[in-house]
């Protein structure tokens, strides 16, 4: 909430810079006075440094554009700082298209350089073009989130990634119980073929589950 309030305060500053510095400088760049008369005109050749009227106007317009660019591009600044003045310029331009007299009658300080410069910006389409560029941050979702929320989201993503990686890591197998040692199977004795006659081939003796013996 505090971030949005600061954005509204910056929007008021931006609107004032547009009307006073930007409009005044734009009128000087056109080489006109508040009454529509010519000042010194743009020099056809040479350097602008020698023409202070045009130079001051250029500095005023450049400073206003720099402030607007910072408010549009800085991610930590609320989008309202640039978006609200942009909406104002777009709304005034739309009103000018629908009703020229009504739009120009709403311009404050029309008899001064500030009002005359803003009227020139409105008539030449500069106000509408600037408004289109300044409303862009309003449509960027990340600009509406605060820095603390971004840090919390980043921490959650890192925690989820660590948990996912740890789940994929193979764990060491736990040693199972050692199987009991099986009893050794007793060897089957053999007897000589033919009742144990010497020289005969050995013959295996049948094994019964109870012990050893010979068939009768």
Mean pLDDT: 77
User: Which radius of gyration do the C-alpha atoms yield?
Assistant: 46 Å
Helix content: 55-70%
**What does the largest sheet look like?**
2 strands, antiparallel
Number of DSSP-assigned strands = 4
Strand order, largest beta sheet: 1-2
Q: How many DSSP helices?
A: 8
Low-confidence stretches: 211-216
Shape: elongated
Beta-strand percentage range: under 5%
Topology, pairings included?
Blueprint lengths: L1 H29 L21 H22 L6 H19 L1 H6 L7 H11 L2 H9 L12 H22 L21 E3 H4 L5 E3 L2 E2 L2 E2 L4
Antiparallel strand pairs: 1-2, 3-4
Walk me through this protein's architecture.
- With 216 residues, the chain is mainly α.
- The protein has a domain at 2-41 and 48-149.
- It has helices at 2-30, 52-73, 80-98, 100-105, 113-123, 126-134, 147-168, 193-196, and strands spanning 190-192, 202-204, 207-208, 211-212.
- The strands form two sheets. The chain has a two-stranded antiparallel sheet with strand order 1-2.
- Strand 3 (207-208) and strand 4 (211-212) form a beta hairpin.
- Helix 1 packs antiparallel against helix 2 (52-73) and helix 3 packs antiparallel against helix 6 (126-134).
- The longest helix has 29 residues, at 2-30.
- The termini are far apart.
Summarize the model shown.
The chain is mainly alpha-helical and 216 residues long.
What are the main properties of this structure?
single chain; elongated; two-stranded antiparallel ribbon; 4 strands; mainly alpha
